[in-house]
Design brief:
Elements: H1 3-24, H2 30-38, E1 44-45, E2 48-49, H3 51-60, H4 65-86, H5 93-103, E3 105-115, H6 127-137, E4 146-155, H7 167-176, E5 182-183, E6 186-195, H8 202-220, H9 225-232, E7 243-248, H10 254-261, E8 272-274, E9 277-287, E10 290-291, H11 294-328, H12 331-337, E11 343-344, E12 348-349, H13 361-367, E13 379-380, E14 384-394, H14 401-435, H15 438-441, E15 449-450, E16 454-455, H16 467-473, E17 487-489, E18 492-503, H17 510-539
Helix pairs in contact: 1-4, 2-4, 6-14, 7-11
Length: about 550
């Protein structure tokens, strides 16, 4: 990730900002720094600055007030310098008009999709070619390695009866973990979501918000909210009438959470904007905060303690067996006096293990990390502890082609059909260039389709035309209406031709114009600051 370089660049830029600020005469006084600290909520008690808390927090973070205040003063200076430089950024009306024209640019295409799957039957398969192809890829067809095991298994449940739990121990555990049984207030709500994304233009967002306001009016007029959600919501909860179930504060994004917290059961919120789009929210019910009582959790606690203590007893048994194996010198000698305890498997692969406990993921991971003749350490599994010995292994060998011919031939056809599809698409593109028309160049077996108008600001309006094709198509001109090469999307190759490029009829109102100006201004400010930093850095001694 180049973290060293990133951190170094940040340090350099911070110093450049401070030096530039001093040359400009920008200063940050100690009083300004102190006021900034007093406003920080982390140093406040009941909304007021707390000096003792301030010192305690700094001490916890291994800082002293002098170094912290110096660092903050430097940060404030850097911020003031950034704001001063960015203040010179401007967005002329011509740029707004240009960006608006860019967003309302639209195109129409003709296109053909050459699919490899349609050409699989056209692939010729002969023994010589297939054998050569398989020889290069035979390791892809290796069967999985196999192991044969001996093992000891000690189940947790076998030791539970030895554990007794007193009432005093249960109450002590409950008091120690009381916070664990606190259940915060939960609210159940429904919502209707009209989605918008960062890629949506100002007009699209305005249209979605207007529609949300219209749906809100219907809901407040008494129309069934769940039915409105089924009709209009663009969220997966629509089929359930927008029902989100119960959730606690903080489970949702901030603006949604804030809106829900202000509602009473049965009330409907105004239109709420989040990163997902525009929401209309109805609060159904509130489940008050509670703490589960000792009697409610008593059996649950008792079971936890029994299993915890029983697990300790199980581990002692496994440890004793492990020591006995070492004293005996081998698992075979241990087995002489513990015949019933040692279990055996036949050969098996990791993908097709015997039943539990062998099929447990931790058991398998340990077993297949061992070589023939190796003994594992004590393995903790979901239901007990295991000790594993690998008595034998089978090294896989690549099968003969005749054994896997059907599978190999299918893979051969897939690969070669992709090559055929690419070659056919390249030929089609060349013919289209020669005839200056994709329609005239395409043979009967390759369909040619025509798109509707595709807006640059809304690529989804392309319908079935893939986004990668649309992206490249906007780079074409009426003078050069064909791409340099087909566009590959998976195993399908697209050839396309620009039919028309125009500007959609779409005006900007004052609100939309102001929003666009703010977006462009933010970009201009960032560009200006970046250019200034680059210029200063080129003249600095570092």
């Amino acid at each position: 990730l180049g973290l060293n370089r990133q951190v170094l660049n940040q340090l350099i830029q911070a110093e450049i900002l401070r030096q530039g600020g001093r040359e400009m005469g920008i200063m940050v006084s100690k009083l300004t720094t102190q006021d900034e600290i007093k406003d920080m909520s982390v140093f406040q008690t009941n909304g007021q600055f707390d000096l003792n808390l301030y010192k305690a927090v700094l001490e916890q973070n291994r800082m002293n007030p002098t170094s912290f205040e110096t660092g903050l003063q430097n940060d404030l200076l850097a911020r003031l310098v950034s704001e001063a430089i960015q203040g010179f950024a401007e967005v002329p009306d011509s740029l707004i008009a240009s960006r608006h024209d860019y967003s309302r640019e639209q195109i129409r295409l003709v296109y053909s999709a050459v699919k490899s799957e349609d050409l699989r039957d056209a692939v010729e398969v002969n023994d010589k070619d297939l054998a050569a192809w398989y020889e290069q890829r035979k390791n892809d067809y290796l069967p999985p390695p196999m192991s044969k095991l001996q093992y000891l298994f000690f189940k947790y449940d076998e030791d539970l009866d030895q554990v007794t739990v007193s009432e005093e121990a249960l109450k002590a555990r409950y008091e120690a973990e009381r916070d664990k049984y606190f259940q915060p207030e939960q609210r159940r709500a429904r919502h209707i979501l009209l989605r918008v994304t960062e890629q949506d233009d100002v007009q699209t967002r305005a249209d979605k918000k207007k529609k949300a306001e219209e749906i809100l009016a219907e809901a407040r007029a008494g129309k069934d909210f769940a039915e409105l959600a089924r009709q209009h919501s663009e969220d997966s909860s629509a089929e359930n009438g927008g029902d989100l179930g119960f959730f606690s504060k903080g489970a949702m994004v901030e603006s949604f959470d804030s809106a829900v917290s202000q509602l009473k059961p049965g009330e409907i919120s105004p239109v709420v904007e989040t990163v997902f789009g525009y929401h209309i929210i109805k609060l159904e019910e509130i489940r008050e905060a509670t703490t589960r009582s000792f009697e409610q959790v008593k059996e649950e606690l008792a079971d936890q303690i029994r299993r915890q203590d029983g697990k300790g007893l199980t581990f002692k048994r496994a440890s004793q067996a492990y020591e006995d194996i070492f004293r005996a010198g081998s698992l075979a000698r241990y087995q002489e006096s513990h015949q019933e305890a040692v279990k055996e498997t036949d050969f098996f692969s990791r993908n097709e293990p015997p039943a539990e406990p062998v099929s447990d993921p931790q058991f398998l991971q340990a077993a297949f990390s061992l070589k023939k003749g190796e003994l594992s350490s004590i393995i903790e599994t979901g239901k007990g502890y295991a000790i594993v010995f690998v008595s034998d292994t089978q090294v896989p060998a690549a099968p003969e082609l005749s054994e896997v011919r059907q599978q190999v031939e299918a893979a051969f056809r897939v690969e070669k059909s992709v090559e055929l599809a690419k070659a056919r698409a390249e030929t089609l593109l060349k013919e289209a260039r020669d005839k200056k028309s994709l329609r005239e160049a395409a043979p009967k077996e390759i369909a040619v389709q025509e798109s509707g108008a595709i807006l640059r600001s809304n690529p989804a309006s392309s319908g079935e035309v893939p986004a990668q094709v649309v992206q490249q198509a906007f780079g074409l001109t009426m003078k050069e209406p064909l791409p340099a090469e087909p566009v590959a999307i998976g195993d399908t190759f697209y050839v396309f031709q620009l039919l028309e490029k125009s500007l959609a009829e779409k005006s900007l109102d004052d609100k939309e114009k102001d929003q666009l100006r703010q977006q462009l201004l933010a970009a201009a400010e960032n560009d200006l600051l970046a250019d200034w930093l680059t210029w200063r850095q080129s003249r600095a001694e570092i």
